[in-house]
Design a protein that fits this description.
Helices cover about 50% and strands about 15% of the residues. The protein has 11 helices and 10 strands. Strand 2, helix 1 and strand 3 form a beta-alpha-beta unit. The structure holds coenzyme A (COA). The site of coenzyme A (COA) has 15 residues, from helix 2 and strand 6.
């Protein structure tokens, strides 16, 4: 059974769906391996924008598979955490923009998967949380590192220490999600945004993503230097000539991704 589905749309948007609905799309080793493989394949033939979602309207991803984890030795748990870091890391390091369409439960590993995306759009019924400590474990798919970077250490610690679930609207006030949309519309909204991004110069968008990511890692002076280099680099692309030329000629640009 395909635990992960990838669909390529005609506007340069690919949708990766975690497809284990009967277990609320929870992540076991097989799912993580398929996510990893799907992301490796997508690197070979990249879309302009990638959307990540969970099958059905009830759950994005309800976390790591607790029944499977309950059987793991410490070494198996280490391997499982590392596999998740590899899979989620491929998403995080994806050169193209990524959008999580959060259509329900985003708990534990689900929240961590969403955190590895550039943008999160949540349906009103989405619930976010890190229930790991209620199980006697801690977030092992990147949550302790990515959550504080996004929402700050205070909110991250409150969420991770309490294990409390929060609704989409509260998640928005924490900057955990960009936008909240009506129930059942997260994927539609994510695709619309993805198509809007995909219509822009793809090389420019990829380099803009790299430049914004750089801001997380380096001091301002180094970051500005990197920005100037990326800016200059784009002037050697056909897309930049096309984009600026189209403005001057008063016509729509047709970007080729070169
Ligand atoms: N791991 C393994 N199985 C899970 C799961 C998970 N994280 N989340 C849901 N499931 C399974 C349930 O065991 C159930 O399987 P079954 O039908 O074979 O019994 C099925 O998915 C449906 O879940 P259910 O609990 O019946 O749905 P619900 O609507 O009553 O509750 C949740 C939904 C999300 C509140 C509840 O499933 C839950 O708390 N899941 C665990 C969330 C979690 O702690 N995640 C972090 C793990 S580190």
């Amino acid at each position: 059974m395909d635990l992960v589905k990838v669909e390529h749309g005609d506007k340069g948007v690919a949708v990766l769906t975690i497809n284990r609905q009967e277990k609320l799309n929870s992540l076991n080793q097989q799912v993580l391996e398929q996510v990893k493989q799907a992301l490796i394949d997508l690197k070979e033939d990249p879309p302009r924008v990638m959307v990540v979602t969970g099958a059905g309207d009830k759950s994005f991803v309800a976390g790591a598979d607790i029944a499977a984890m309950n059987e793991m030795s410490p070494l198996e748990a280490k391997r499982f955490s590392e596999l998740s870091h590899e899979a989620v890391g491929l998403l995080d390091r994806s050169l193209v923009p990524t959008i999580a369409a959060v259509n329900g439960f985003a708990l534990g590993g689900g929240c961590e998967l969403a955190l590895a995306c550039d943008i999160r759009i949540a349906a009103e019924n989405a619930l976010f949380g890190f229930p790991e400590v209620t199980l006697g474990i801690l977030p092992g798919m990147g949550g302790t590192q990515r959550l504080p970077r996004l929402v700050g250490p205070g909110i991250a610690k409150e969420m991770i220490f309490s294990g409390r679930r929060i609704k989409a609207e509260e998640a928005r006030t924490f900057n955990l999600v960009n936008r909240v949309v009506p129930e059942g519309e997260a994927l539609k909204a994510a695709k619309e945004l993805a198509e809007e991004i995909a219509a822009n110069g793809p090389v420019a968008v990829r380099h803009a993503k790299a430049a914004v990511n750089k801001a997380q890692d380096v001091d301002l002076v180094s970051g500005l230097e990197y920005e100037a280099d990326q800016f200059a680099l784009l002037f050697g692309t056909e897309d930049a000539r096309e984009g600026m030329g189209a403005f001057v000629d008063r016509r729509d640009a047709e970007f080729k991704g070169r």
